[in-house]
Amino acid sequence: MAYNYNVCHCIPYLMLRKKCIEPYEESWSELKLFTELAKRLGLEEYFPWASEEELVAFELGQTGFSFDYLLNEKPEGDYYQQKSYTIPDGTFKTPSKKIEIYSDAMQQAGFDPLPTYLEPLKSPQSKKYRDLKKYPLILGTGNRSYYYTHSQHRNIDALNGQDPHPMAELSRNTAKDFGIKQGDDVSVSTDRGTVFMKASVVDCVADGIVFVPHGWSGQANANLLTDAKCREPILGYPDMKSLMCAIKSVEISR
């Protein structure tokens, strides 16, 4: 696949990840999954590629690089153009060709055309807070583990040994306020559900915040805490960073 995530953001640099193994047993590649889904929806014309190689070659078309070049000649990747820190006239894809603070598109969609702060539906300042007082902390979900990719690779013993437990992160002051110590078994609850994790007391989390990782299954699944009805009203993006929660030490029999 084309590698353009994280280290390459805003840099005109491309590299390929070589395939490590063939799909295991009945698993499919993303291309096959979306292609088969498109066929069933009558949208197969939008997925004309017969293989991952064809798709990546298509993606590389405008860079001037061939699939073989990045796969064999430059496996470490290459720059496909010079990085420019200037903005030539007329490059902004807006009606005025300038940076626009006032958005006609937002106004046409029925929203405020000017940037306006919108309080989360469930927060200490929201109207719903009176119903959420038993959840005094702010929840953030989606923390990444260096050892896994989303829910993948958690069946690999070598990685499990490095990161065996889901860790709920909180500050020293928050941990002290709630009688929690490093490594304690804890429950994290919202008005939607409860997960069970271990506590990680750290210096990089603000007081009053609890961060929980994503990708774990069962009773550590962060999706048990979130609320699909709490959505940003314009694009419909779900609120996963500012819900209200509670945390406490628990005893878990193992």
UniProtKB/TrEMBL annotation:
Provenance organism: Desulfosarcina ovata subsp. ovata
Keyword Mitochondrion: no
UniProt cross-references to Pfam families, sorted A to Z: Molydop_binding (PF01568)
Name the UniProt record assigns to this protein: Molybdopterin dinucleotide-binding domain-containing protein
Molecular-function GO term, any one: molybdopterin cofactor binding
Family annotation (InterPro entries): Asp_de-COase-like_dom_sf, MoPterin_dinucl-bd_dom, Prok_Mopterin_Oxidored
Keywords: Iron, Iron-sulfur, Metal-binding
Residue intervals of the Molybdopterin dinucleotide-binding domain: 138-241
Database matches in PANTHER family: OXIDOREDUCTASE YYAE-RELATED (PTHR43742:SF6), TRIMETHYLAMINE-N-OXIDE REDUCTASE (PTHR43742)
Gene3D superfamilies (UniProt xref): 2.40.40.20, 3.40.50.740, Dimethylsulfoxide Reductase, domain 2, Formate dehydrogenase/DMSO reductase
Record has Iron as a keyword: yes
Superkingdom of origin: Bacteria
